[in-house]
Amino acid sequence: MAEAATIARPYAEAAFRLAEGKGTIAGWSAALSKLAAAAESPELNQLLGDPRIAPSQLAGLLVSLSAENDPALAQFVATLIENKRVPALPLVHEQFEALKNRREGIVDAQIDSALPLNDAQLAELVAGLEARFKRKIRPHVNVDAELIGGVLVRVGDEVIDGSVRGKLAGMAAALKN
Hints:
- The chain is an alpha+beta fold.
- It folds into 2 domains: 2-102, N-terminal domain of the delta subunit of the F1F0-ATP synthase (Peroxidase, domain 1, Orthogonal Bundle); 106-176, no CATH class.
- It is built from 8 helices and 4 strands.
- It has helices at residues 2-22, 25-39, 42-48, 55-66, 71-82, 89-104, 119-133, 164-176; strands at residues 106-113, 136-143, 150-155, 158-163.
- A 4-stranded mixed beta sheet has the order 2-1-3-4.
- α7 (119-133) links the parallel β1 (106-113) and β2 (136-143).
- The longest helix has 21 residues, at 2-22.
- It starts with a helix and ends with a helix.
């Protein structure tokens, strides 16, 4: 997968520079999201391999799906088609979002909780994470009953294991040593 990420990176960076220069980062983000979804569809993959479909027709179709009327986006899509990089669109979108989040000082946090969190609990947890990481946190909450109790938080490559399962595993390891 590293090769695909390497292919997608320059396109994501170029798209971000274009969007940032025009002040349309949110519009490009939404457009790339739609384009990434389209790139994963079997119907589009059939069209990509069809020699009867002109690249300009395919570009027009993709741009219309994006619902963004921006000539720079149309040229960007045409470049992707010309270089046969349309399948990389999901990774381009993912990396574009990472650049957007970095610019806005936002970091995603995957929060696995043994029980559903109410709004007050989530707000308290997010406030603590924001204080620790000194950035705005965008939480993605998942309920995982196997944790037994507590939460497991992943922010970037850092993991904070406050789950009962994690504490039991730590105790088991300590007893074995």
